[in-house]
Amino acid sequence: MTAHPSPGHHPSSSTGAPPSPTVDVHAHVLLPEVEALVEGRPGLAGARALDARRNGPAALAVNGPMVRGRLPRLTDAAVRLAAMDAQGVDVQLVSPSPSHYHYWADEETAEKLYRLAGEATAAHCAADPDRLRGLGLVPLQHPDLMVPALDHALARGLSGVEISSHAPGRELSDPAYEPFWTRAEETGAVLFLHPFGCTLDERLDRWYLSNTVGQPTENAVALSHLIFSGVLDRHPGLKLIAAHGGGYLPTHIGRSDHAWSTRPDAGAGCAHPPSSYLKRLYFDSLVHDPHVLRELVRVAGADRVLLGSDFPFDMGTEDPVGALRAARLSEADFHAVRGGNAAALLRKD
């Protein structure tokens, strides 16, 4: 992966080392083809009703105009690339909007969905393969389809797949997912953990708590399932990026360590203190607070944090490099997070 000349292009150090690209690992694409596929299918109306209950009417009234105003950046690759230039971003790792998960879908629909999502995302990224890398989807509600879905994404030239924090009735610690973790580890696929919807439901249906509190909560719960169940012991080579800086878990990991060391039920499933597993995961930088970002770098390691913007949604940042610079990291750590870590992670053998 080489740097593209853009306003955000920086040398990797002041010593004349070769420049590294600025890489944003948290950027989305909207796929109208997917929504056309599921329209009218049994289960869609119920899923939309649940989403409405979880978000509340005030949030839904804002969401529609917000998304419509961002449609060109979400669907038109040329508009995306121009926006990247303005932000100083050389490369984006583009994942489908989480609204495309549709974990209510039956097996036949789910197979059509992951194929269409992978093909449409690959087509979007084909506009500039040097600057746009893509992720596909896998149906968490149908574990038997997940390995074929991952293979389909990789065969389309995508870097991996995006997953949510859970599926109905299944946590990420579910043993049924073991073949998927095994295949992801074998292939070196990138897994992007991005929640959609919070099971606290109507408790968060005002003031956009469904997102501001719900997303970090879901990240923390999902990562805790992966850690405490031993998934990361069994699959130490997983390349898993947690969106939103991993939510609440990294800044409160001491409580997990205390439980692991004090209670036999908490410590039964994983071999090491929970904090040690943060250094086996990757996290995006989208935490909206420079002090929190510094703490994330401290607990996970500067080599485990990647630039993320949530492009182009309103809960993201329009200036991801500026947000990173505000954390006042060392020069080496700044450039590692800005793009060096992601460039190494996405590099093809």
TrEMBL record:
InterPro entries: ACMSD, Amidohydro-rel, Metal_Hydrolase. Residues 1-23 are annotated as: Disordered. Signal peptide: none annotated. It holds the Pfam family Amidohydro_2. The keyword Lyase applies. Residues 1-17 have a biased composition (Low complexity). Keywords: Lyase. Residues 23-347 form the Amidohydrolase-related domain. It comes from the Bacteria. This is Amidohydrolase family protein. The lineage of its organism: Bacteria, Bacillati, Actinomycetota, Actinomycetes, Kitasatosporales.
